Automatic annotation (TrEMBL):
This is Ribosyldihydronicotinamide dehydrogenase [quinone]. The lineage of its organism: Eukaryota, Metazoa, Chordata, Craniata, Vertebrata. One of its GO terms (molecular function) is dihydronicotinamide riboside quinone reductase activity. The enzyme apparently serves as a quinone reductase in connection with conjugation reactions of hydroquinones involved in detoxification pathways as well as in biosynthetic processes such as the vitamin K-dependent gamma-carboxylation of glutamate residues in prothrombin synthesis. It is found in: Cytoplasm. It comes from Dissostichus eleginoides (Patagonian toothfish). Residues 5-193 form the Flavodoxin-like fold domain.
Length: 272
């Protein structure tokens, strides 16, 4: 049996942080299970966060009206992307599972991690108009978010001041990961570790270690397949799919909710 390859994209500056401990636990447990684990430590790498024309080593097609998506697609095809991008693309190509480990900043990933997504997931390499969502380029790969929050769990509920965490996760999990075809595993959320006693942080890490024992066999979160939408009609849900769910209590997903109540834990638990 070929060992699974895991890429951890890690964004925290401090080796004494909870995020560092979570990353180290993943490396230790997954390596012990026979996986090959590689870490992209973005701050240590001083990874460039801005998607600019400097990401292309060759000549650009239209310098007067520079379009990053189109230009990097051409550069990727010609082998003219900068080394920091191509190295990450090679790691991603080899990986069976990608874990993004980070502290949540302003309800999303830190800028340096968003820069990794903006620059590494280039048009052509990570997605095309035809190959996206359930028919995406990375549909044989799995990906997941593992992150810490500053707020306690109760604040990220449907009645909490921050709103439903399922809604917060939709742009990252559907709009980036699933868009590129990844099978998205349920997120590992460490709620406000800086506000709990050290024993509670130890319990959080232990639950993460336990989960990793079966992580690669987990079922992914549910998303509406691409073929449920009519490409000839603005990618609207097909009438027969709409009719099938007309009498159901909940919408299909957090984003495709059909004006109904959101399916509970749609972005946080598999099989719901």
């Amino acid at each position: 049996m070929v060992s699974e390859k895991v890429l951890i994209v890690y964004a925290h500056q401090s080796s004494g942080s909870f995020n560092s401990a979570a990353k180290d636990a993943a490396v230790e447990v997954l390596t012990a299970k026979g996986c090959t684990v590689e870490v992209s430590d973005l701050y240590a790498m001083k990874f460039k966060a801005t998607a600019t024309a400097e990401d292309i080593t060759g000549k650009v097609k239209n310098a007067d009206h520079f379009c990053y998506g189109e230009e990097t697609k051409l550069a990727w095809e010609a082998g003219e992307l900068t080394a920091d991008i191509t190295e990450e693309q090679c790691k991603l190509t080899e990986a069976d599972l990608v874990i993004f480990q980070f502290p949540m900043y302003w309800f999303t990933v830190p800028a340096i991690m968003k820069g990794w997504m903006d620059r590494v997931l280039t048009l052509g390499f990570a997605f095309t108009h035809e190959k996206r969502y359930s028919q995406g380029i990375f549909k044989e790969k799995k990906a997941m978010l593992s992150f810490t929050t500053g707020s306690q769990e109760s604040m990220f509920t449907a009645n909490g001041i921050n709103g439903d965490m399922n809604v917060t996760l939709w742009p990252l999990q559907n709009g980036i990961l699933h868009y590129c075809g990844f099978q998205v595993l349920a997120p590992q959320i460490f709620w406000a570790p800086s506000h709990v006693p050290s024993e509670a942080r130890g319990t959080m890490l232990e639950s993460w270690r336990m989960r990793m024992q079966g992580l690669l066999g987990e079922n992914p979160l549910a998303f509406t397949p691409l073929d449920c939408f009519d490409g000839e009609n603005g990618y609207q849900l097909k009438p027969e799919v709409h009719e099938k769910h007309a009498t159901k209590e909940f919408g299909l997903t957090v984003g495709i909710h059909l004006g109904k109540a959101l399916p509970p834990n749609n972005q946080m638990k598999a099989g719901v």
